Amino acid sequence: MGSLQESLELFKKQQEKCQSTLVSIAPKAGAMRGTPPKPVSSMVPNAKSSAPAVKFSNDTERLQHINSIRKAPVGAQIKRVIDLLYETRQAFTPEQINGVCYVDILANKAVFDSLKNNLKVRYDGNRFSYKSKHALKNKDQLLVLIRKFPEGIAIIDLKDSYTTVMEDLQTLRTAGQIWLLSNFDSQEDIAYPNDPRVNIKVDDDLKVCFRTMELPRDMLDIERDLQKNGMKPATNTAKRRAAAQILGIVHKPKTKKKKNEIGKRTKLTNRHLPELFKQ
């Protein structure tokens, strides 16, 4: 880099020397021929006096940046192009991609072929564009799609549909049109349609598990278990009990009732004694 800078400085000095020599020679030549001297700028082809001079240092920095991108690994160049397609959601020709993000697809066959075969890229023979799993454009199309999956659809399959899809999911949840629940096995959110007309199929194993599960008797334990599993309880029993103690209300823990046992105050009716009506 140092030798290149020195060569440039030497070249600029030579140019300045030539120009000063031309300036000194031009009046003499004009006087000898009887013609007025021409300005120096007219002697240089395509010279524009109003155009600012391009600093070599700035141009060198830009060229070095472009060169570093084109010498980067194929994977890094592909990611750069896909990021451009994802953020803009527009279709680009190879020349346009080169002009925007400096990845020369036409000069790098490995990058070109990888982009054509990439699952996140659509190529129509002329232009490249981003390809999401579900072709959605707005909130209405998003809701229609979610309603087609009564058993839930993963958010990861929706998040790249369009740029504001996550905001629209929250809007639909706030409006009560969908549910957003967490899947504890994969730690991913699932979107469910909140439509009473939709028949949701529930496995028999899940039904049995739900009906046989015994919950803690104290709400504090229930809230603690919810928080342990990453869910926010809808109640705050500790805060409620603290407020009740201030008012002098004593909390009485619930006791487990025995099933199928007739107490002293149990009201007996004919339905409890069907044998009385037997002849």
UniProtKB/TrEMBL annotation:
One of the record's GO molecular function terms: TFIIH-class transcription factor complex binding
Chief location category: nucleus
Compartments where found: Nucleus
UniProt cross-references to PROSITE patterns, sorted A to Z: TFIIE_BETA_C
Keywords tagged on the record: DNA-binding, Nucleus, Transcription, Transcription regulation
GO CC, alphabetical: transcription factor TFIIE complex
GO BP terms: transcription initiation at RNA polymerase II promoter
Domain annotation TFIIE beta: ranges: 62-137
Function field: Recruits TFIIH to the initiation complex and stimulates the RNA polymerase II C-terminal domain kinase and DNA-dependent ATPase activities of TFIIH. Both TFIIH and TFIIE are required for promoter clearance by RNA polymerase.
Descriptive protein name: General transcription factor
Organism expressing this protein natively: Lithospermum erythrorhizon
